[in-house]
Amino acid sequence: MSDYLTIEKDNIRIKIHLRNLTLVLIGSIIIVDSLIILSDSHSREAVDIILLDVTGAIALGLGILVIYRHKFHVEHGKSFFCLTLGVLLWLAADITVSYYYFILLIKDVPPPVSFADVFWLSGYVFFALHLFITIKFMRNIINVRVVVTTSVASAIFVSYILTAHLPLILSEFAHHNYLVFAVNVSYLSQMPY
C-alpha cells in the first residue's frame, strides 16, 4: 500500500511539473511573438535576431539541465545528449548571424556560405541521431504502415521541392559553385512558396 501511495504522489508531482512547464512555454511564446509583432519595421530584424539568440540559449540551458539531472542513466540519455548538441550547434549558427549583423554590420546580403550555414546544417546530424535513437527504443510500438506512408510522402515532398526549384539548382550547378549549390539545396525545404 505504501508503494502505491508513493507512485501516486510521484505521478501527481510529474503532472504538476508538466502543467507548469506547458504554461511557461505558452507564456514565453506569447511574449516573444508579441515582442516581434509590436516592434517597429526598422528594428524588427534586429529584434528577431536577438530573440533567436535568447530562445536558443534558454533551450540549450534546458537541455543541459536534463542531461545533468538524468545523465546517461535513463533510457533516452544519449538521445537527450544528441538533441542538446543539435540545439548547441543551432545556437552557434544564430550567434554567428548576430555577429554578422551587429559586429560586421552585414545586413543586406549575407555571405553565400558562412560558418552559420555549417553550424546550422551540422545540427541536423545530431537531430537525426536523436530521432534514430528514440525510434530504436520505440521499435515495438512503431506501426510499419505509418513508416512506409511517411517515407513515401517525404519522397514525394522532396521531389516536388527539387522540381519546383530546378532553375535555381541548375544555375548554381552551371556556375560551378558547388558549395553554394549544396547549401542552397539543403535549404530548399525552408524557402517560402
How would you characterize this protein structure?
The structure is a single chain. The protein is built from seven helices and no strands. With 193 residues, it is mainly α. The longest helix has 37 residues.
> What is the chains' assembly state?
single chain
Q: What is the share of helical residues? A: over 70%
Following the backbone from N to C, one meets helices and strands in this order, namely: HHHHHHH
**Low-pLDDT runs:** none
Mean pLDDT: 80
End-to-end distance: 60 Å
Beta-strand percentage range:
under 5%
Q: What is the rounded Rg?
A: 21 Å
Structural class: mainly alpha
Give the strand tally. Answer: 0
| Major sheet size, sense and barrel closure | none
Count of helices?
A: 7
Q: How would the global form be characterised?
A: globular
